[in-house]
Write a structure and sequence with these properties.
This protein has 583 residues and is of the alpha/beta class. Helices cover 45% and strands 7% of the residues.
């Protein structure tokens, strides 16, 4: 009688039948899904109207933006977004979602998996009985090992499962089961078990799939055989570019075993493949450099910070602490760090230095304008929702107008208050802005001029008297027109919409242009803070500074993500690490 609850996987090979014809581990789509997180949007009416020309009013626009930074006392609603938080601030989208979404509770209980996994190793008869209780599972063995991996069951319980499978299958344990057992070994940091599985796989398979390689690399780097992880990395290179996680694990292993030159070489290799390194890879270099006085090493860490800047990457809270600790630990450098925020004026609350302006230089503005005109307006997909004739009509219309101070997405603004009449909302916003002698353009669609319960003709006529208006076909998209008019009017011009323009940003083909577009967008997009219809319109604060890693030589300012605050990809952090050298 064979004993199935063995003490180590070293006894597994005797269950294993050698098969020299098997050279590649079988690929399973469900296995890839399991490992992916671990391993690795013609009639007779007049379609446009021109407001009487008035000089460009930059002063009024600036005043409007300044006023947008503060809410009048007594105007706040109980559910309003703070005006201190700008449209692109981390967490702002989630707050808007919570305010605007009315969730329904249908009383349905959440779906739960009620399986009770074994908490101790089972013998053959017990596994037979356990399988009998789950007759509905087509592949019980694969299903149960997946459940055990998901719940991080103990190694001993998983071993007993593999021994039971091997006994039933002439000593053969399938690749899928073995890799999921390997996952548990890596998770629980059972390094000796990882090495045992590695030996079995090395003997049985000439090549693995990416998930298997990734687990073996991650397990081996913590052993005295860590350099064999580099051999596995070379195996991956024969068929594909290794993942950034593969590089991260090998770099971590090199640093763990004090081979810093190898770590830097792997890092350069990663960048050479145009891979974006994991933030924990970068953090590892800062952690390793603590208390080291080495100018060459320090310069490489400064290069990492500039890499964060150039790629608009933001460290997490733990990484920010590592950066602070490294700066303060370098012997003789006298750096001091503090966690702080940036004031609305753009000054650091910690040291008082002024953060880089969000304002684009004339060269940057012209570069961005040319790119958007070519890639979004002329070369984008706007003709799917408009026609070349209509776009030409609009361009001629804009050329006949003086530069605008504010361009308004009329339909988007009109829907700010869902329960209010749309023409009334639009008129209210336009009237308030017109009082400041601003040159306004309202973009809309032709149906807005048709008498309707949501659109009154008399109110739309008042809108047309106070602003230039262009009404496109009902099937047309507003955004290309809005971008064109705003950019054509000059760097002073702002635009009002809740649309975050992510589709149009995606039309820009290189990272530099996308970053410039986002920088321009942050400094030019106005959004209305939700309030009751009829109250004075208040706009969300536009930041005056650029949220990007920056240095003056004797200081560094590094925006970072808070651990408990969810930030969407189009948002920027609000917390900063301020570092300055003592004099």
């Amino acid at each position: 009688m064979m004993t199935f609850c063995f003490t180590g996987i070293r006894s597994l090979p005797k269950f294993w039948k050698s098969n020299p014809y098997l050279s590649v581990g079988p690929g399973h789509s469900y296995f890839s899904l399991f490992l992916k997180d671990y391993c690795g949007i013609r009639n007779q009416q007049k379609w446009f109207s021109l407001k009487t020309a008035s000089p460009q009013n930059t002063k009024a626009v600036n005043l409007l933006i300044a006023k947008a930074r503060y809410l009048r006392k007594g105007d706040e609603g109980s559910n309003q977004v703070s005006s201190d938080s700008h449209l692109f601030a981390a967490g702002a989208a989630k707050k808007r979602s919570q305010m605007n979404t009315h969730r329904e509770d249908h009383g349905l209980p959440p779906v739960r998996n009620t399986i009770q996994l074994p908490t101790r190793p089972l013998n053959s008869e017990e596994w037979d009985k356990f399988k009998e209780d789950f007759k509905g599972k087509a592949n019980f063995e694969s299903w149960i090992i997946s459940q055990m991996a998901h719940c991080h069951s103990s190694i001993d319980v998983a071993k007993s499962l593999l021994a039971w499978v091997a006994a039933k299958n002439n000593g053969i344990v399938g690749y899928d089961l073995l890799v999921k057992y390997l996952y548990l070994c890596v998770f629980h940091k059972h390094i000796s078990e990882v090495i045992d599985v590695y030996e079995i796989m090395k003997a049985r398979y000439k090549r693995l799939e990416p998930g298997g390689y990734t687990l073996l690399i991650q397990g081996l780097i913590h052993s005295d055989r860590w350099k064999e992880a580099l051999l596995l990395l070379e195996d991956i290179k024969k068929v594909m570019i290794p993942s950034k996680k593969n590089y991260n694990d090998c770099i971590e292993g090199a640093l763990l075993h004090q081979d810093v030159n190898l770590a830097w070489n792997l890092y350069q290799e990663l960048l050479g493949h145009n891979l974006i390194p994991m933030l924990k890879t970068l953090k590892a270099f800062f952690d390793f450099g603590k208390n080291i006085k080495d100018d060459q090493y320090s310069n490489k860490l400064f290069d990492i910070l500039l890499y964060l800047r150039n790629n608009h990457l933001y460290p997490g809270e733990s990484f920010a602490h590592s950066i602070k600790t490294w700066f303060e630990s370098v012997p003789g450098e006298q750096w001091k760090g503090q966690f702080t925020t940036i004031q609305g004026s753009g000054q650091c609350s910690g040291c008082g230095k002024t953060i880089e302006s969000l304002h684009l230089s004339p060269e940057e503005y012209e570069f961005l304008k040319e790119k958007i005109m070519r890639d979004v307006i002329d070369g984008g997909d706007q003709y799917k929702k408009t026609t070349p004739q209509e776009l030409e009509r609009f361009q001629n219309f804009v050329k006949c107008c003086p530069p605008f101070d504010i361009v308004i997405d009329g339909l988007n603004v009109a829907k700010t208050f869902p329960k209010a009449r749309e023409s009334q909302v639009l008129l209210h916003v336009v009237s308030q802005l017109a009082k400041q002698n601003l040159q306004l353009l309202v973009l809309g669609r032709k149906h807005m001029l048709t008498q309707h319960s949501r659109w009154r003709k008399d109110e739309m006529k008042k809108v047309q008297k106070q602003a230039s208006c262009f009404f496109a076909d009902n099937i047309s998209a507003d955004d290309p027109f809005l971008l064109y008019a705003t950019l054509h009017s000059g760097n002073h011009c702002k635009f009002i919409t809740k649309d975050l323009m992510r589709d149009h940003k995606a039309c820009l083909h290189d990272a530099k242009t996308q970053r410039l577009f986002f920088k321009w967008q942050q400094g030019h997009q106005l959004a209305i803070i939700n309030r009751l219809p009829g109250s004075k319109v208040t706009f969300q604060h536009i930041p005056s500074y650029d949220t990007v890693v920056q240095t003056t030589g004797d200081s560094w300012h590094i925006p970072y993500d808070e651990d408990l605050l969810e930030r969407y990809s189009y948002e920027v952090p609000t917390k900063w690490l301020c570092l300055h050298r003592k004099t």
